[in-house]
Amino acid sequence: MSKATTLLAFLILFANHINAQIDGDNIFATDQVITIELNFSQTSFFDSLTFNYDSGTYMKADLTLTDGTGTYTINEVGVRLKGNSTYNHPGNKKAFKIDFNEYVSGQNYDGLKKLNFSNGFKDPSCIREKIFFDVCQEAGVPTPRVNFANVYFNGTLWGFYTVVEQIDDQFLDWRILDDDGNLFKAGDNFGGGPGGGGDEADLKYYGPNQADYEDLYELKSNENENDWSDLIALTEFIDNSSAADFENNLGDHIELQEYLRSAALDNLFSNLDSYTNSARNYYIYHNLTTDKWEWIKWDGNESFGSYGGGPGGGNLTTLALDYHSNNRPLLENTFNSPTLYAQYQNEICYLTENFFNPTYMNAKIDAIKTLVQSSVYADNNKMYSNDDFDNNIENNITVGGGPMGGTLYGLKSFVQQKNTFVTNQLECSTIINTDQVNFSPINSYPNPFNDTVLLEWQHNKFQSISIFNCLGQVVAQQDVSGKERIEMDLSNLAKGTYFAKMMLESSTMNQDAVIKLVKL
User: Fold this and answer.
1) In what order do the strands lie in the sheet with 452-456?
2) Structure letter (DSSP) for residue 171
3) 518, 342, 510, 519: which is closest to 430 by C-alpha?
4) Which class would CATH give 434-519?
5) N or C: the chain end with fewer CB closer than 10 Å?
């Protein structure tokens, strides 16, 4: 086969991968405001929805959904109200969930069985969750996709909502590429808990009895088997390992870079209604393909410092880089390890240089504001005013009392202040600068890749190729002396971002070539 034919074959495979449809792309692949029209047979439907809240019972409704691909009618979907603080705020704009197959088995929309609708609790900007989860997604952390909807109940505009992807087997299929393992959700954290404590999903070890964990977590897959032994084993490792064992072997139990980057994102966005502080609003999944646990984000509506249960009411733009609440052994042991804490700091640096900075964030915030502004203005049930929306995009605002009141950080001002604080705390010059890796004379096919990647270059002066992860660690090397192309098997690497660096043979050629690779 000729070189041109080989390249064409790889390009075709690459194009097919990029163009492949993922379940839910109709809603989530493009930033948009969709329309959801729910029609209930009862005239007193809202009374019934609120009555059913405690039991979690779904009500029947007929659905008309309009997105960028068209308008679709789906009859007899299930609808129920959801949330904790988001439910208890005054007003009728409650968070809710749609289950397409609650009453019609196998019914779905674009492969999705459920959708979640967040109501903007404690968010005058109405876009906190979208911005936070988009950045998590772009940084390679498993995260539900997010968009927006104008929602109508029985012909009346009920409000402007954030639409959040369900974490279920569809999500695991496209994001994790494995859906046979145990998926656990951190519990609601409002009960008694083991030994009379709170129901914190703290990843502490409470002994071998499954019953001692069932108030802390919810098993969301393999419910018939109901075998929690893998979760209990994970907590035992986290809580009972020696410092050396934890440091050396954490990466054998959990996808380490994903977890460290996820923790770093929570710190940068002061997203404290998470494992960091409240010990809720996360999923962990036992990937049976890799035999490692993966950390999945959830519920980011109180990012940008909106959570009120943080460290003593302090300034959350200067949150300590190693902040965590008490009894968080996964974070405690990570931060107590010099090696793991250095890797965590590297993730902070990577994120601030590439995502969490005013240049990147302000452009994203402005684009989303433009997309949603008219819909926010039209929402007469929203919790804040139009002026609050406009002002909170830019700066802190102070509103009335209660759970939605107080001073709420502005999105842009928060990013500016937090970025300044972090960059003054850390020396990030050792991190690979991904903004400088696009000059390379290297070609790669396909990229993103699954197991193998073909690399080609323009001359035969390179001596070797090294593959680095985002921490600057060499994870693969190969001699390429006299060659102009090579196919590398990188199937042993975890999903994520890597860098291929070509080392030159001659010291007179002092610029090495680097290319960014993404493994799916």
Assistant:
1) 443-445, 452-456, 485-489
2) H
3) 342
4) mainly beta
5) N
CA distance 513 to 292: 33
Cα gap 370→126, rounded to integer Å: 12
Looking at every residue in the chain, the average pLDDT score rounds to: 88
List Cβ<8 Å contacts ≥24 apart for 322-329. 323/267, 323/276, 324/276, 324/277, 325/276, 325/277, 325/278, 325/279, 327/200, 327/202, 327/204, 327/279, 328/202, 328/203, 328/275, 328/276, 328/279, 329/202, 329/203, 329/204, 329/238, 329/239
Q: Cβ distance 130 to 250 under 8 Å?
A: no
Q: What are phi and psi of 133, to 5 degrees?
A: -70, -35
Q: Residue 103 in contact with residue 78, Cβ under 8 Å?
A: yes
d(CA 134, CA 139): 9
| Residue 478: half-sphere exposure toward Cβ, Cα within 13 Å | 13
Residue with tokens 């940068």: 268
pLDDT the model gives residue 246:
97
Which residues are CB-neighbours of 171 under 8 A, at least 6 positions away?
A: 144, 165, 296
Q: Indicate the pLDDT class of residue 19, thresholds 50, 70 and 90.
A: very low
- pTM of this prediction? 0.80
DSSP at 328:
-
* Distance between CA atoms of residues 39 and 271, nearest Å: 36
CA triple 269-255-83, angle to 5 deg: 50
Q: Which two tokens stand for residue 308?
A: 């009120």
Tell me the DSSP string of 55-107. Answer: TT--EEEEEEEEETTEEEEEEEEEEEE--SHHHHSSSS---EEEETTSSSTT-
Residue 282 · residue 266 · CB < 8 Å: no
Instruction: Kindly report which listed range (69-78, 242-251, 319-328, 479-488) carries the lowest average pLDDT score.
Output: 479-488
What is each CA distance from 491 to 475, 488, 494, 520, in whole angstroms? 12, 9, 8, 10
Residues 6+ apart with CB under 8 A from 277: 307, 309, 310, 311, 324, 325
SS3 153: strand
The model's confidence at residue 448, banded by pLDDT at 50, 70 and 90, is confident
**Angstrom distance (rounded) from CA 329 to CA 204:** 6
As a whole number of angstroms, the distance between CA 254 and CA 56 comes to 33
Exposure of 178 by Cβ count < 10 A (0-12 exposed, 13-18 middle, 19+ buried)?
middle
Within 8 A by CB and 6+ apart from 315, the residues are none
